[in-house]
């Protein structure tokens, strides 16, 4: 019996994988992101340098060579090693911040749409507040107050980026809760929590998912921005931190392209892959957009 | 205790229509739709009462009000002689198990993202009536098979979109019946289905009634269907009951002009009609309008001066046969 259930799941997954494969945007995004995830997991194991291998004076700011494939930075560290461990931090930050933002946005959106009235008003004014305040200064202030650890950065990004999700989820909840199966569930004696989790959530989830992928892109950009501005975690090499150090050591003016170009490109590629996937998911899960 | 399972007296459901901000600020009187405006009836244990009326006559709203799905006011609203008090948690729990609803549109009333087994056993789960997964599946299988979906296991993991309209309605019925209710509001349960499937669904509903001594409030706009299945019929018009009585009496010798107009155009097998059919003139008035006197006045072929002045009371013209008309 449970095998029938798992077969259903498998079939669904297959269908989903098939629609990704047919969609060029989704496929490109998935491939790029997969490469980065693999690099983030295995890269630091393969590369023979650690991010803490400070070189001697003659090793500083060396262009790419056979020993250091992407050259060295102003402290003689291997750029490739930094880049790969930076992928870990950036992706980790992107995923965790997105999860925080998704959870907050979903809870607030569903509660607001489902209960309506005063609760809706209070929650939506709160959401509007987060929607309109300039997020970068807010992040900077929060990051400065909380201190510059990677966990704080993740937390700060998470709690500043949920407002859009909440809005989208609320709108969808408003439409779902008027559907007849919700009333039918009330008539069999179900409580609000049951209806929200079992009926509203599954019907808004595709939307949340597509929205979330786009938030991941924003989260990674935010992490890079904060780190570049010097509010990042100084004990870990993220792409933002690399750009920060490259900028401080004047890599751009001294022509050390191998120092600032790779982290910049990586950020662009990862964000691009998330954006591609996000738009494609939106298209796959929202049949109305398919005809575009 | 009386043998009435449901007793409703002077039920009113009014909806306030919200105007635009400007209209409200200008102090325009709020429009009130009197969806149900003073309805009284009772349903006996194991009885089928049909509520017949055209669209907008308030028949569905009446059904929903009894189940506490819309806010209402009523002088008396009893279930098994007890006041229906949805706000009281313990009562609500028991009431929800004993009174169920079957919806009109099986395409809307099933969550497209739930599997059949979860839909059917949901009442048991939310009311914490099952202890183990095996028990849940066993009861779900039983309910599906009683509703004519055999073998039950074959339907467990299907999604609503994989079922036909008739099968979906059977799933809805299986889910409504799984807790063994004693009263079911059936809101046009066959109107969305193909003619070929209707009979099957109706037969199923009648079988379940016989097995469980169920009482139905059967909501329909189809007078001949009401005649076929119900013990008593109540004719509704604009939120009021115009006439109520045994179905044979209503169909063969209805007294109210509205009932007469309806039965007159009803196809009756084996009876040849003499003369032209009288078709009711005009439209149902705007429900937000305040109507003085009899609600049917504007379309009534036999109206008199008193009709537009005074609202006719419910009169019992013979035992169990009620008519609301001045001229009877």
Structural commentary:
The complex is a heterodimer of chains A (about 290) and B (about 325). Chain A is mostly helical. Chain A has one domain (about 20-45, about 75-285): MetI-like (MetI-like fold), CATH 1.10.3720.10. Chain A has 11 helices and no strands. Chain B is an alpha/beta fold. Chain B has one domain (about 5-325): Rossmann fold (3-Layer(aba) Sandwich), CATH 3.40.50. Chain B has 10 helices and 12 strands. Chain B has helices at about 20-25, 60-65, 90-100, 115-125, 135-145, 165-175, 195-210, 225-230, 245-255, 255-265, and strands spanning about 5-15, 30-45, 50, 75-80, 80-85, 100, 185, 215-220, 230-235, 240-245, 315-320, 320-325. In chain B, the strands form 2 sheets. Chain B has an 8-stranded mixed β-sheet with strand order 6-7-8-3-9-10-12-11, sandwiched between helices. In chain B, strands 2-1-4-5 form a 4-stranded antiparallel β-sheet. The longest helix of chain B is centred in the middle third of the chain and has 18 residues, at about 195-210. The relative contact order of chain B is 0.14. Chains A and B meet through helix 1, helix 8 and helix 9 of A and helix 3, helix 4 and helix 6 of B.
List the helices and strands and how they pair.
The complex is a heterodimer of chains A (292) and B (328).
Chain A: H1 2-22, H2 24-46, H3 79-115, H4 117-132, H5 135-146, H6 150-160, H7 163-177, H8 180-187, H9 192-228, H10 239-248, H11 257-285
Helix pairs in contact in A: 2-3, 2-11, 3-4, 3-6, 3-7, 3-9, 3-10, 3-11, 4-7, 5-6, 6-9, 7-9, 8-9, 9-10, 9-11, 10-11
Chain B: E1 4-17, H1 21-25, E2 31-44, E3 48-52, H2 59-66, E4 76-79, E5 82-83, H3 89-98, E6 99-102, H4 116-126, H5 133-146, H6 165-177, E7 183-187, H7 195-212, E8 215-220, H8 223-229, E9 232-237, E10 240-246, H9 247-253, H10 257-264, E11 315-318, E12 321-323
Parallel strand pairs in B: 3-8, 3-9, 6-7, 7-8
Antiparallel strand pairs in B: 1-2, 1-4, 4-5, 9-10, 10-12, 11-12
């Amino acid at each position: 019996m449970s095998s029938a259930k798992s077969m259903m799941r498998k079939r669904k997954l297959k269908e989903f994988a098939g629609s990704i494969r047919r969609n060029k945007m989704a496929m490109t995004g998935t491939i790029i992101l997969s490469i980065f995830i693999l690099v983030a997991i295995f890269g630091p194991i393969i590369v023979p340098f650690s991010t803490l291998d400070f070189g001697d004076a003659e090793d500083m700011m060396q262009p790419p060579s056979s020993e250091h494939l992407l050259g060295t930075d102003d402290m003689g560290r291997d750029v490739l090693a930094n880049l790969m461990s930076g992928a870990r931090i950036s992706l980790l930050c992107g995923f965790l911040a997105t999860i925080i933002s998704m959870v907050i946005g979903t809870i607030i959106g569903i509660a607001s749409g489902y209960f309506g009235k005063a609760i809706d008003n209070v929650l939506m004014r709160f959401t509007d507040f987060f929607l309109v305040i300039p997020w970068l200064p807010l992040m900077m202030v929060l990051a400065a107050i909380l201190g510059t650890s990677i966990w704080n950065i993740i937390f700060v990004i998470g709690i500043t980026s949920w407002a859009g999700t909440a809005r989208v989820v609320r709108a969808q909840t408003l439409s779902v809760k008027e559907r007849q199966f919700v009333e039918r569930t009330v008539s069999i004696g179900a409580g609000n929590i049951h209806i929200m989790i079992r009926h509203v959530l599954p019907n808004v989830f595709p939307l949340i998912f597509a929205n979330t992928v786009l938030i991941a892109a924003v989260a990674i950009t935010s992490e890079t921005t904060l780190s570049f501005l010097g509010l990042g975690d100084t004990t870990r090499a993220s792409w933002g931190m690399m750009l920060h150090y490259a900028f401080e050591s004047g890599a751009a003016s001294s022509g050390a392209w191998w120092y600032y170009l790779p982290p910049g490109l990586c950020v662009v590629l990862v964000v691009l892959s998330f954006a591609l996937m996000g738009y494609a998911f939106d298209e796959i899960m929202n049949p109305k957009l398919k005809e575009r | 205790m009386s043998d009435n399972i449901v007793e409703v007296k002077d039920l009113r459901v009014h909806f306030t229509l919200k105007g635009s901000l400007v209209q409200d600020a200008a102090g325009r009187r709020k429009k009130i739709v009197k969806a149900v405006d003073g309805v009284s009836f009772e349903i006996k244990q194991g009885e089928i009462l049909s509520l017949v009326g055209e669209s907008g006559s308030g028949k569905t709203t009446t059904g929903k009000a009894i189940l506490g799905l819309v806010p209402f006011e009523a002088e008396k609203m009893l279930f098994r002689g007890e006041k229906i008090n949805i706000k009281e948690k313990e009562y609500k729990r028991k009431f929800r198990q004993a009174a169920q609803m079957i919806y009109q549109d099986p395409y809307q009333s099933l969550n497209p993202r739930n599997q059949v087994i979860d839909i059917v056993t949901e009442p048991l789960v939310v009311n914490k009536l099952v202890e183990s997964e095996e028990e849940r599946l066993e009861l779900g299988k039983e309910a599906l098979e009683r509703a004519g979906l055999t073998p039950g296991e074959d339907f467990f993991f299907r999604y609503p979109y994989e079922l036909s309209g008739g099968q979906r309605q059977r799933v809805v019925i299986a889910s409504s019946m799984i807790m063994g209710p004693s009263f079911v509001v059936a809101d046009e349960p066959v109107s969305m289905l193909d003619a070929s499937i209707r009979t099957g669904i109706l037969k199923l509903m009648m079988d379940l009634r016989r097995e469980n001594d169920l009482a139905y409030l059967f909501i329909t706009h189809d007078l001949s269907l009401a005649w076929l299945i119900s013990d008593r019929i109540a004719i509704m018009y604009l939120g009021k009951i115009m006439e109520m009585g045994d179905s044979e009496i209503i169909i063969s010798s209805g007294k109210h002009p509205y009932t007469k107009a309806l039965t007159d155009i009803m196809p009756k097998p084996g009876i040849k009609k003499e003369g032209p059919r009288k078709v009711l003139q005009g439209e149902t008035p705007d429900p937000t309008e305040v109507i003085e006197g009899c609600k049917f006045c504007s379309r009534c072929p036999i109206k008199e001066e008193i009709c537009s002045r005074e609202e006719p009371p419910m009169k019992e013209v013979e035992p169990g046969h009620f008519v609301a008309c001045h001229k009877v």
